[in-house]
């Protein structure tokens, strides 16, 4: 069962499109990657969010008719390539990280790869995301694969250690070989409207990242209002973040569609205003193939095709790959297998 590759209205995600080959445009305008710009507090203070309209629109996304059959399989393959396959547990070990890296290199079982006819795709996840202690292990395990290693940093998940310690943590992870750094912001700067302090913090983290890409985790479940989510998004983007990310996976509420709608609309308005692109990473509690499709639909509707590339879109997920594999097995065989047959690590 080879997948159809044409780019129809139902399949905006050809499975074999090489990553990064799509020019980043919005409304026909070519965008450049984000870089730090001076903080304009008026942009932040002027933000208003119509919460009930956002909630209504977000609720309509999962209710829509989903893509089916080969098209759905193509979208799910794309979701795998946009995944930061993650382990962030207190009982993480080098062995678990090595198993996770093996899964990142070969995310689908061989019989599925053959049945789908995607041997030439050399499908991998976008990155593996770990604590600093396992960066070197992951770098070694992924050598030659082109899969990037992301490290959570800056006192993850609370982000409350001294600033020098947090900055030093970034430097160490970059030295150890991480090419992506997921930082956490000080949530209190948002509650207190301390926009200059938030901007300076994120800018200092970005500088410490050097050539590594930086994803700014806002901890949206802690931010109380959608307006705060939008305001924190704008400050993080002005301070030079390459991506904005919802959650650590440790808050009581993690990635949700309403929060994501607010964040991706902030990315869109920022691009319209500055001509610069920022990536998006929903993370925490995204566990099913259905959720993967919902988020891709949201990205495509709000930002367009360029935001379905791993250069601009990632899921942070520790267990979603198992469900995607299970759904693809059902697509190929017509039968559902037991969840335990699709371990992630
Ligand atoms: O950044 C990624 C998250 O920590 C993953 O959360 P999850 O375990 O709920 O998938």
Automatic annotation (TrEMBL):
It comes from Bryocella elongata. Keywords: Lyase, Schiff base. One of its GO terms (molecular function) is deoxyribose-phosphate aldolase activity. One of its GO terms (cellular component) is cytoplasm. SUPFAM superfamilies: Aldolase (SSF51569). It is an enzyme of class 4 (lyase). It catalyses: 2-deoxy-D-ribose 5-phosphate = D-glyceraldehyde 3-phosphate + acetaldehyde. Belongs to the DeoC/FbaB aldolase family. DeoC type 2 subfamily. Its EC number is 4.1.2.4. This is Deoxyribose-phosphate aldolase. NCBIfam families: deoC. Pfam families: DeoC. One of its GO terms (biological process) is carbohydrate catabolic process. Residues 1-22 are annotated as: Disordered. Pathway: Carbohydrate degradation; 2-deoxy-D-ribose 1-phosphate degradation; D-glyceraldehyde 3-phosphate and acetaldehyde from 2-deoxy-alpha-D-ribose 1-phosphate: step 2/2. PANTHER family: DEOXYRIBOSE-PHOSPHATE ALDOLASE (PTHR10889). Residues 1-10 have a biased composition (Polar residues).
């Amino acid at each position: 069962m080879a997948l159809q590759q044409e780019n129809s209205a139902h399949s905006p995600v050809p499975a074999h499109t090489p990553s990064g080959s799509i020019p980043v445009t919005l409304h026909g305008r070519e965008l450049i990657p984000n870089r730090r710009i001076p903080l304009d507090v008026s942009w932040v203070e002027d933000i208003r969010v119509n919460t009930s309209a956002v909630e209504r629109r977000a609720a309509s996304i999962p209710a829509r008719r989903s893509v089916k059959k080969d098209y759905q399989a193509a979208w799910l393959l794309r979701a795998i390539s946009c995944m930061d396959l993650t382990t962030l547990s207190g009982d993480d070990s080098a062995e678990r990280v090595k198993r996770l890296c093996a899964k990142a290199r070969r995310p689908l079982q061989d019989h599925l790869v053959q049945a789908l006819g995607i041997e030439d795709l050399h499908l991998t996840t976008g990155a593996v995301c770990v604590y600093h202690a396992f960066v070197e292990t992951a770098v070694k395990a992924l050598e030659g694969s082109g899969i990037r290693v992301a490290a959570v940093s800056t006192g993850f998940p609370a982000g409350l250690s001294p600033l020098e310690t947090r900055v030093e943590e970034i430097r160490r992870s970059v030295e150890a070989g991480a090419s992506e750094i997921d930082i956490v912001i000080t949530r209190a700067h948002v509650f207190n409207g301390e926009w200059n302090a938030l901007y300076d913090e994120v800018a200092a983290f970005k500088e410490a990242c050097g050539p590594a890409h930086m994803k700014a985790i806002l901890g949206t479940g802690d931010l109380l209002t959608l307006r705060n989510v939008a305001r924190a998004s704008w400050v993080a983007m002005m301070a030079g973040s390459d991506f904005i990310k919802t959650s650590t996976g440790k808050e009581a509420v993690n990635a949700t569609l309403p929060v994501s709608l607010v964040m991706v609309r902030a990315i869109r308005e920022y691009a319209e205003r500055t001509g610069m692109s920022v990536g998006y990473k929903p993370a925490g509690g995204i566990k099913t193939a259905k959720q993967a499709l919902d988020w891709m639909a949201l990205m495509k509707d709000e930002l367009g095709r360029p935001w379905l590339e791993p250069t601009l879109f990632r899921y942070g997920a520790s267990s979603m790959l198992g469900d995607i594999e299970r759904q693809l097995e059902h697509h190929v065989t017509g039968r559902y297998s037991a969840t335990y047959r699709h371990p992630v690590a």
